[in-house]
Amino acid sequence: MRFKFLSVITASLLFSWSQTSAQEILTLQQAVKFALDNKKEAKNSKLDLENAQYQIDEVRSGALPQITGVGSVTYNPLIQQNVIVMEDPATGQSVSTVIQFGQPWQANSNLQVSQQIFNQALFTGLKAARTTREFYQVNKELTDEQLIEKVANAYYQVFQSQLQVETVESNLGNTEKNQRVIQGLVDAGLAKKIDLDRTTVQVNNLNAQLQQAKNALEIQENALKFAMGMDITAQIDLPDETFAIDAQALENLPIDLDNRTEIRVLEKQTELLELDKKAKIADYYPTLSFSGNLGYMSFAQRFPIFNGNATKTAYSALGLNLSIPIFNGGKTKSQISQKNIEILRAKVELEDTKLALTMASENARTQVKNSLLTINSNEGNVKLAKEVLDNTENNYKNGLATLTELLDAENAYADAQNNLNNSLLDYKVAEVQLIKSKGNLKTLVNE
């Protein structure tokens, strides 16, 4: 595996990966930081946080003066005429007169202003908008933690696959060495050809296993690069100490369940529901607003704009608008009751989540302890299997052991190594879960 840097973009390790002549080791911290800068989920959570500010600005705009300018030009091909009936003073008879109102052309421009003076729903909305921004901030932290967990697990699985490849390569090399020894014994007439054939079959099987292990490693590498948001064609290289065990450091991590991001997200959701309820309660409150307008009209026989002969007039109005809710059939009360149910559900979800997180914490602690015991047992088993293999090889060369015993010893040693590799992966996965249960996943970035 090879991992290569293109360049360091900022001091905070905002870097791009590509194939260059310089090779660098990809640590877990670098993998996580790369994912936090490049993975879709991390980018979207940052956009959500940025969008929250725009939502606040949108709600705040409702508390600011609203100014609108309106203009229109109207042409009236047929002007309405009205009949006015008057009494002729000379004759005492009624006389009807047809009078035309208006001009063919009319222009109107109007400036309208409105300002909320008291609107409880608007004030509650402003507070809810600020809380929404806080929610997106916490939700971004939760998204980051979920991404860290995903990348860490994928990272350790790549290393475990790499160990599997190294184990098969080691066993293959050992079997090929024995094959050469048996070949010499056969040539000297001290061993049977069937022993050489059986060893050749073992070598061929190990070659097939090696190819399978390499394929699995490539798949795991691609999974890691996808989890990081990295180009799938990039090459990566992991450090040798990836599976270092430090159980004492885990014990020293403090546990703060109330500070878990999952809890804080649910608490913010509950707070938003409370504010939503207050917004519905605000429907009981009256609203008061100011409005005003200033207009200008002109009339003419021809197009009125820039027409010096047009008749011009101005008008204006100022007003206070008071709206008092009296009765809406119980609609507001029903809506408030629905909000109360949503709040109760959110609180039930919060308590259940706390219980689940407590259980996960205890399970992670238990899994770490069991994994440590398994690792210690498997390490001893690998050492013992290696001693058995060495002794069996020596006995076979001296005619004190059969080929079957030698092959069995090789298989036992390979199984012991694979068991150790699997137990190391189990420990690192449990380690991530324990760190997560203590609310300290960010330590995987800051180490």
UniProtKB/TrEMBL annotation:
Record-linked InterPro entries: OMP_efflux, TolC-like
GO CC annotation: cell outer membrane; efflux pump complex
One Pfam family cited in the UniProt record for this chain: OEP
Coiled coil: 196-230, 375-426
Signal sequence, renumbered to the chain: 1-22
UniProt keyword annotations, A-Z: Cell outer membrane, Coiled coil, Membrane, Signal, Transmembrane, Transmembrane beta strand, Transport
Species, as recorded: Sphingobacterium paludis
Subcellular location: Cell outer membrane
Entry similarity comment: Belongs to the outer membrane factor (OMF) (TC 1.B.17) family.
Protein name per its UniProtKB record: Outer membrane protein TolC
UniProt superkingdom: Bacteria
GO molecular function, one term: porin activity
The UniProt record lists the keyword Membrane: yes
